[in-house]
Design a protein that fits this description.
Layout (H helix, E strand, L loop, with lengths): L8 H32 L2 H32 L1
């Protein structure tokens, strides 16, 4: 990287302000990413994808028991 040559302190101050704002934006972005990652790792979030499978399994078990009861009562 070629060093930039400044002709005034105002130019230096302006670049320092820009760099500070860019740093602040990067820090806030990192905080947001951390919070999103943390919320995605909560047990309820992790089980969210499994929840649909578990519901289907439980419904099929209950349905099977209901069908077995009705079929055993007929005989």
């Amino acid at each position: 990287m070629i060093p930039k040559k400044y002709s005034s302190f105002e130019e230096i101050d302006q670049d320092l302000k820009i760099l500070k704002l860019e740093r602040d934006i990067a820090v806030e972005n990192l905080k947001l990413t951390f919070q999103q990652t943390k919320s995605n790792l909560y047990p309820t979030s992790l089980l969210g994808g499994v929840g649909g499978i578990v519901k289907k399994f439980l419904i099929s078990v209950v349905a099977k028991k209901v069908v077995n009861r009705f079929s055993s009562n007929k005989g």
